Prior knowledge:
Distance between the termini: 71 Å
Helix content: 55-70%
Number of strands: 0
Largest sheet: none
Strand content: under 5%
Shape: globular
Amino acid sequence: LEASMAAPVFLHALAACGASSAPMSRRALVSTAAGLLATRPRAPASANWLTSEALERFRIAEQEAADSKYGELAPIDDGTGGGKRLLPILQIERQIDTLYDGASTPSRWDEVARVLGAPEFETKRLKRAFNFYSDNIYYSSEDRANVYLLGGATPESAQTEQYLLRNEFLTAVQNALQEALYLVDERAKPEGDTDSVDLVKYLGTARQSLREYVRRADTRDLSTARKLMASEDDVMRHKQTQR
């Protein structure tokens, strides 16, 4: 079989196996694939097998399995749109801006250490937030849908740039956390080191990386995310006035 034909048939066979609760032997799996190949109707020239329902179910199962193992992949797209998925990143950006503004003030170092040391800023959870927006394997384009299953997915240049910026941001956040913890400890010593140059540098790198990441986001997503964040701010202000 040609690779271009064998791969989709094999994946369809796997999907067919998943429909049965009974285990299937390797011989039965091969027979199922062969049967699908023999009986598979010829699709119209414009049809894209990558968007087939069976393959869709297969990739959903694969992403869920990988997510359970590593905890870094994005959850399944719930259909709420890119703006909502981008919102958590804008909220992170706001927090980083606030921390950067106070990085040179010794009394603010505890806040930096507390925020960056919180569960929300753990590397794994940050990766999930970023992956949910820019690295989700659920492509909307039919030309890219499911193609990663065959090892042939090529990220777009904007996605590659966002991925590199994301990694730069993650590294800077970890460096800033370690530096903040160090400064808090040194501050308590009679002649401790209170030079905040490195902390300012790390937070500055994190802030700039995140700004560049957001700048590469889809303009409609960014507009929607900012509106959602403004709406949440209005709700918070209203609650505060009701106290």
